[in-house]
UniProtKB/TrEMBL annotation:
One of its GO terms (cellular component) is chloroplast. CDD domains: MDH_glyoxysomal_mitochondrial (cd01337). The lineage of its organism: Eukaryota, Viridiplantae, Streptophyta, Embryophyta, Tracheophyta. NAD(+) binds at residues 33-39, 59, 120, 143-145, 254. This is Malate dehydrogenase. The gene is MDH4. GO terms for molecular function: L-malate dehydrogenase (NAD+) activity.
Length: 339
């Protein structure tokens, strides 16, 4: 019966809470937009993450179904009642350590990420108002596009609420790194797991700036290879949008990248040393207020934002182009809240 289900659920939740309190590495994670193309595989992969003790799945449609399905997986994380619609947003967010946001519309062929602004800006604002109210200390992993503008929107919402901690707001650019590692490994004939490519700037077109001069293991590329790889990495999202031909954008590789990034955030929260990843954050690395670069993740979030390191001529030209577009996208996000 429903009441038995509820009792079972609450005692399971108590046990999960006990595990977390007893020093076991258990964090409470909410996914907002959990029934979507990214949200569903992301929820599945988070349910498999041993650092997660409680998983809240929120969406404006179908979250009870996704929750019921995922809750049958015999892994440690407890998935409690599906959180459906605005009236359940606060319950979904209360007590969370990490909030991952893949809510919003994806691109169709012919669109830029900025074309999503009109719909997604309002969605991100509402969700971030909920975070400010219910879990102001949570780490936020923002996936909704256009990331270059939605992160500044989130920051302005948090500033307005008086709870902005720049270290806790992270725009997710891990998919660019995942793509860069894959494409560079193909060219070098290496296993992608051995390759590490820093990708800086932002998350759209020319703002995606792979630093091929800093690839690990150390290697060199011909000018043709550099041009090919840079374009392939910058256009990776568009290539998927075109291949899906109207059915959306990257979802599975994004869910993989989001979980890879969320896992690093949770390891940082746990206090592991030396956790470094690229993310789009509040930054003093350039004159722009937000910029993606390597950050060190710790108990407080992005505790250190690293400088870009030496760039070659090709990358210096790319950086100037990236900054121009980024400045416009950041301003657009800021004025959406300030207007
Ligand atoms: P989708 O349409 O399949 O799923 C989006 C989900 O968000 C849907 O389930 C929808 O109901 C939900 N949603 C809509 N409004 C909401 C609200 N107010 N509150 C909560 N949930 C709401 O789209 P998708 O393919 O999962 O993509 C989601 C977003 O992620 C898009 O904006 C896309 O551009 C972006 N994206 C970003 C990256 C990145 O690298 N940062 C990569 C891929 C996609
Ligand atoms: C991506 O890089 O795959 C996402 O930003 C989705 C998109 O619209 O390209």
């Amino acid at each position: 019966s429903p009441s038995n289900l509820q009792m079972g659920e609450s005692s399971m939740l108590e046990r999960a809470n006990c595990r977390a309190k007893g020093g076991a590495p258990g964090f409470k994670v909410a996914i907002l937009g959990a029934a979507g193309g990214i949200g569903q595989p992301l929820a599945m992969l988070m349910k498999m993450n041993p650092l997660v003790s409680v998983l809240h799945l929120y969406d404006v449609v179908n979250s009870p179904g996704v929750t019921a399905d995922i809750s049958h997986m015999d892994t440690g994380a407890v998935v409690s009642a599906g959180f459906l619609g605005q009236k359940e947003l606060e319950a979904a967010l209360t007590g969370m350590d990490l909030v991952v946001i893949p809510a919003g519309v994806p691109r169709k062929p012919g669109m830029t990420r900025d074309d999503l602004f009109n719909i997604n800006a309002g969605i991100v604002r509402t969700l971030c108002e909920g975070i400010a109210k219910c879990c102001p200390n949570a780490l936020v992993n923002l996936i909704s596009n256009p990331v270059n503008s939605t992160v500044p929107i989130a920051a302005e919402v948090f500033k307005k609420a008086g709870i902005y901690d720049p270290k806790k707001l992270l725009g997710v650019t891990m998919l660019d790194v995942v793509r860069a590692n894959t494409f560079v490994a193909e060219v070098l004939g290496l296993d992608p797991r051995e390759v590490d490519v820093p990708v800086v700037g932002g998350h759209a077109g020319v703002t995606i700036l792979p630093l091929l001069s800093q690839v690990k293991p150390p290697c060199s590329f011909t000018p043709e290879e550099t041009e090919f790889l840079t374009k392939h990495i910058q256009d990776g999202g568009t290539e998927v949008v075109q291949a899906k031909a109207g059915a959306g954008s990257a979802t599975l590789s994004m869910a993989y990248a989001a979980v890879k990034f969320a896992d690093l955030c949770l390891r940082g929260l746990r206090g592991d040393a030396g956790i470094v990843a690229c993310a789009y954050v509040d930054s003093k690395v350039t004159e722009l207020p937000f910029f993606a670069s390597k950050v060190r993740l710790g108990r407080g979030g992005a505790e250190e934002v690293y400088q870009l390191g030496p760039l070659n001529e090709y990358e210096r030209i790319g950086l100037e182009k990236a900054k121009q577009e980024l400045a416009t996208s950041i301003q657009k996000g800021v004025s959406f809240i300030k207007k």
